[in-house]
Amino acid sequence: MLVSGLVAGFILGLASGGHWRRLTQLDLRFLPALVVAAALRAVAPFFGQLALGISMFGLALIALVAVVNRALPGAWLVALGSTLNLLVISVNGGMPVDPEAMTTAGKSLPNDGLHVLLGPATHLGFLADVLLAPIVNNVYSVGDVLLAAGGFWMAFRVLR
Fold first, then answer.
1. Which residue of 43, 58, 86, 122 has the fewest C-beta atoms within 10 A of its own C-beta?
2. Contact 66, 98 (CB under 8 A)
3. Tally of domains in the chain
4. Could you give the residue ranges of the DSSP H alpha helices within the chain?
């Protein structure tokens, strides 16, 4: 979600009169750590039993980079979103996903070692993948929305 928020922020930032040159003024500390974190999140599902740990480490690294760069617009939203996702995943042994919302979105239930079914034993279910986004036919968590909003705001404000 962070990457999609950043991309949308770049597109709308440029479309509304922003300029690429402003990116050279961006002082993003720990950029290599952020790239590693994003890569870990992308490849985690391919690591079987290690998938959950790799994904959680990636989320923690994203939160850390966001806190280090807290002066940037949107960084606190990125840190909060990552932390909320990490919290709900930690207490449930995976990201709980609402099967009804997935069916409504036309998606099959993920079998990637990162998700678990939302049920009566789920802790912090309101932070799980329960938010149906009909426009993109997918299901997101509160943390995902905050990650995307923070990434969008950061890219948009930097370009503007």
1. 43
2. no
3. 1
4. 2-15, 31-43, 51-68, 75-92, 99-104, 142-159
The string of pLDDT tens digits covering residues 91-149 is 999 999 999 999 999 999 888 889 999 999 999 999 999 999 988 889 999 999 999 99
Grouping H, G, I as helix, E, B as strand and the rest as coil, residue 12 is: helix
Give CA separation, 45 vs 2, 32, 52, in Å.
17, 21, 8
Helix (H, G, I), strand (E, B) or coil at 134: coil
Q: Which amino acid is at 87?
A: L
Instruction: Read off the pLDDT of residues 20-63 as tens digits, 9 standing for 90 and up.
Output: 888 888 889 999 999 999 999 999 999 989 999 999 999 999 99
CB 45 within 8 A of CB 113: yes
- If one counts every other C-beta atom within 10 angstroms of the C-beta of residue 54, the result is 18
- What is the DSSP code string of 69-90? TTTSTTHHHHHHHHHHHHHHHH
Structural domain boundaries enclosing 6: 2-159
* Reported pTM: 0.93
* Sole residue written with tokens 């040159």: 21
Render pLDDT for 50-102 as a digit per residue (tens, 0 to 9): 999 999 999 999 999 999 999 999 999 999 999 999 999 999 999 999 999 99
